[in-house]
Amino acid sequence: MLSTRLPHSTMDAEEWRLRCELTDFYHLVDFLGWTEMIFNHISVRLPGPVKAPAAAHQSPAAAAHHYLVNPFGLNYAEITPENLLKVGVDGQLVEPSDHPANPAGFALHGAIHASRPDVACVAHTHTTAVSAVAMKRGGFDHNNFYGAQIHGRVAYHDFEGITLYPDERGRMLASLGDKHVLVLRNHGIAVCERDIPTTFMLLWVVQRAAEIQCQAGALGGEDVQIEPVIQERCRAAAGDLASGLRVARMVWDAAVRRMRASVDRPTAGPHSSLRQPA
Predict the structure, then answer these.
(1) Is residue 271 one of the residues assigned to a domain?
(2) How far apart are CA 173 and CA 186, in angstroms?
(3) pLDDT score recorded for residue 49
(4) For residue 215, is it within any domain?
(5) Before 7, cis peptide (omega within 30)?
(6) pLDDT at residue 246 in the model
(7) 14, 83, 164, 253: which is deepest, by most CB within 10 A?
(8) How far is CA 107 from CA 196, 257, 278, in A?
(9) Low-confidence ranges of the chain (pLDDT < 50)
């Protein structure tokens, strides 16, 4: 299922590294059971800006960068560094591929990438636990260990149907603001961060928060509430650990090692996310 794209030897080294990391992200989502058949996307921004001028249908901002995203129709386990699509902010292919682009499915990603220069990676999932929390008016209650870590980082967007229509993008961005987690009510979540490992760790924290909240809700008895000041302390401490100790990178590398040991996916050299093209 390899696309007819340039061989690794002629590709920019940073693009190849990002292709390998993004492939691992897709494989981790599959390994952890967070997939939704062929649906949902994880995207990463390539270094830029693009030197080519904007096409007639693009704004200058839309032409500033290119992005990598999964080929629509493939299982996450079938994704390779070679068959990832390179698209513009509008989701349209900017390089030939054996696989079609899915501009409508990229709408949320493109909107976030275009408006948030602090964000390099966007992941969208709707696992059972996350979708259950997204159905509740109160959303995340921040009263468990993981939920407290995302206190003040979560935004909400009311359901408007399948996110296919360009006119919704501005409203989604207004809902997201400067947050890093967007709960799409009655639907799922989108998380975004500065790089792939940090986005993965944030997605994992949000997933664990949702799972524990759902399990606690199924039990009788009153939940112990965490005071807002403690919730804020947890959020700040999680941020300090992420920046000072590079915990996200350590968690990422450990998750990739665990996955590879379990499913025997290949690696290349000292970088756990790197592999050679088939």
Answers:
(1) no
(2) 18
(3) 72
(4) yes
(5) no
(6) 86
(7) 83
(8) 19, 32, 31
(9) 1-5, 53-59, 62, 268-278
Check residue 177 and give left, alpha or beta (phi > 0: left; psi -120 to 50: alpha): left
- What pLDDT does 245 receive? 63
pLDDT of residue 274: 41
Q: How far apart are CA 229 and CA 32, in angstroms?
A: 32
pLDDT value for 206: 98
Q: How far apart are CA 173 and CA 190, in angstroms?
A: 12
Helix spans in the chain (H): 13-31, 107-115, 128-135, 145-149, 169-176, 196-217, 228-244, 247-263
- pLDDT for res 240: 67
Distance separating alpha carbons of residues 202 and 242, to the nearest angstrom: 10
CATH value at residue 244: 3.40.225.10
- Is the pTM higher than 0.85? The answer reads yes
159's tokens = 């359901």
Structure tokens at 23: 């492939």
3-state secondary structure of 88: coil
The range of the structural domain enclosing residue 220 comes to 8-263
What the block records as the tokens of 253 is 């590398």
Is residue 165 domain-resident? yes
Task: Give 9-29 as a DSSP string.
Answer: GGS-HHHHHHHHHHHHHHHHH
Backbone angles phi, psi at 157, to 5 degrees: -135, 125
CA 271/CA 13 separation, integer angstroms: 13
- Asked if the structure places residue 278 within a domain, the reply is no
